[in-house]
User: Which sequence fits this backbone?
C-alpha cells in the first residue's frame, strides 16, 4: 500500500478559466391559451357582415338572371323543400322548448337538440336564398320586398340565437336575461319563417 494513501495531495491542480461569457438562459413566459385568438363577438360580427353582403349579392343577382321554364320549376321545388326543412327544424326546437317549460325534459336536452338542428336550419335558409335567385322575384311588389327582408331577419336572428345558446351552454345556470333573449329570438324566428312561407304562397297564386 502507498504511504500517501488517505492523505490530501500536496498540490491542487487548477484548470484554466474560460474567458468566454457563459450564455444566459432566457426564460420566456408562456402565452396564455386564448392569446392570438379573436374574441367570439368579433367572429359573430364578421359572420353577420358576410350574411348581409351575401344577401345583397343574392338580391342583385336575382334582378339580372333569367331562368328557363324547366330551371324555374326545379328552383321552385327546391325553394319549397328548403322552406319545409328550415321551418320544420325551427318547429322541432320550439317543441322541445315547450317540453322543457312543461317539465317533461331537461334544459340540456333543448340545447342539444337545437345544436343538432342548426345545420338543417342554415341549409334550409341557404337553399331558400339560392333557389329564390332563380325565381325572378318582382322587387316592385311590396310583399316580395317584405319576404326578402324576412329572409335577412331569419339569418341575422339565427346568428344571434347561436350566440345566446353558446352562452347558455357555458353558464352553470340559465339566467333570466338569457332565457328572455332566447324566447324573443325564437318568436322572431317563427315570425320570419311563417311570414316567408305565407308570402311565398300568396305570390304563387298570381
Assistant:
Amino acid at each position: 500500500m502507498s504511504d500517501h494513501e488517505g492523505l490530501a495531495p500536496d498540490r491542487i491542480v487548477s484548470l484554466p478559466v474560460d474567458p468566454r461569457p457563459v450564455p444566459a438562459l432566457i426564460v420566456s413566459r408562456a402565452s396564455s391559451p386564448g392569446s392570438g385568438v379573436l374574441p367570439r363577438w368579433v367572429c359573430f360580427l364578421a359572420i353577420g357582415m358576410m350574411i348581409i353582403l351575401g344577401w345583397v349579392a343574392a338580391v342583385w343577382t336575382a334582378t339580372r338572371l333569367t331562368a328557363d321554364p324547366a330551371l324555374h320549376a326545379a328552383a321552385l321545388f327546391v325553394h319549397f323543400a328548403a322552406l319545409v326543412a328550415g321551418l320544420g327544424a325551427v318547429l322541432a326546437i320550439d317543441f322541445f322548448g315547450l317540453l322543457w317549460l312543461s317539465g317533461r325534459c331537461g334544459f340540456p336536452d333543448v340545447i342539444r337538440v337545437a345544436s343538432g338542428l342548426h345545420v338543417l336550419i342554415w341549409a334550409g335558409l341557404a337553399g331558400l336564398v339560392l333557389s329564390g335567385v332563380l325565381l325572378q322575384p318582382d322587387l316592385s311588389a311590396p310583399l316580395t320586398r317584405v319576404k326578402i327582408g324576412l329572409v335577412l331577419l331569419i339569418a341575422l336572428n339565427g346568428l344571434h340565437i347561436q350566440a345566446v345558446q353558446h352562452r347558455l351552454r357555458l353558464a352553470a345556470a340559465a339566467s333570466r336575461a338569457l332565457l328572455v333573449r332566447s324566447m324573443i329570438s325564437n318568436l322572431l324566428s317563427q315570425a320570419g319563417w311563417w311570414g316567408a312561407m305565407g308570402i311565398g304562397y300568396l305570390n304563387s297564386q298570381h
User: Anything to note?
Assistant: The chain has a mean pLDDT of 81. Residues 40-63+71-204 form one domain. Residues 48 and 156 are 6 Å apart (CA to CA). The chain has one domain: 40-63+71-204.
